[in-house]
Amino acid sequence: MITREALLQEVDAQYRQQRELNQAEQERRLAEAVARDARIGELWEERRAIFQDRARQAFASPQDAHAISGVLRGQLESLHNALRARLRACGLPEAYLQPVYRCPLCRDTGYVGEPVRERCACFTQRMQALVSARTGDGLNGRETFAAYDDSVFSDEPLSVDTPETQRSYMQRLRQRCESYAELFPNNPRRNLLMVGMSGLGKTFLLNCIGNRVRERGHTVVKLTAYQLTERMRASIFEHDVEPFRTLLTVPLLLLDDLGVEPLLSNITIEQLFTLINERDLDGLHTVVSTNLMPEELQERYTERICSRLFDKRAAAMLRFVGKDVRLGSTGIVR
């Protein structure tokens, strides 16, 4: 069972390791600079001695701390100018000896804010990535826009009332899905609702979106509605809350086959509303696929859930129509 405490400890350990790597890199840079110009090492030691001396003075005389800080700034500025000049002269960047951080906001501590400390955004991202690594992101890596083959769809008119074929219609849906993935996270409408019978390619395009967004460096989690119910159940009865908590904060959530999951009393509807509502309030992106029609969704779920799924300000609905396709080799069957 994945516990939040265990994950926090693991991410904290990653930050400690990163700080050690940062320190080693800074020491390597200093050694390189000193090898080129020994005076750089002397200036560096003078700088450190001033820091230590002024820190002792400020601790001994707190009432003089402001004045001491003013003197310190003047002395350090002079040393910094000398260091920058020496670094330039020996062919190194002026900022070569500045502290090394992956995250300039928290300086690789995982915390921001004074006096109230909060987790940095980079920490949350690491937590999400760790949970995804433990539970899997659910994506089928083979189902991509590059692998999408619209020739499997019929080239006959969809109906006697329109000359458009299922193939040309699916080409338009594919383009909309690819545009969504390319624009992420700056989409005009952050959510997509894919509706239509099975065998029309919803799951394939869901994976296409997820794989493209992941390629572009964003965290994605895809799961079926049944898997979602399992996470809901585990969070309540087994106190395994982190996998469900991750779904509340992951940048892109892909929920497949909504409507096939069991309706567990006091769990499914309540937790699903919490998930959709919290993500909506936080402006996060959610893509849902379902074999149910809008009226069937309204019958199955509460008005509170459907009002968010159908909200035209935040969500676009993609209707999948045509003949059921079965093509085992490419998997465009769902």
From TrEMBL:
Residues 191-309 form the Chromosomal replication initiator protein DnaA ATPAse domain. InterPro entries: DnaA_dom, P-loop_NTPase. Gene3D superfamilies: P-loop containing nucleotide triphosphate hydrolases (3.40.50.300). Keywords: ATP-binding, Nucleotide-binding. One of its GO terms (molecular function) is ATP binding. Coiled coil: none annotated. The keyword Nucleotide-binding applies. Pfam families: Bac_DnaA (PF00308). It comes from the Bacteria. CDD domains: AAA. GO terms for biological process: DNA replication. The keyword Ligase does not apply. This is ATP-binding protein. It comes from Candidatus Avichristensenella intestinipullorum. The lineage of its organism: Bacteria, Bacillati, Bacillota, Clostridia, Candidatus Avichristensenella.
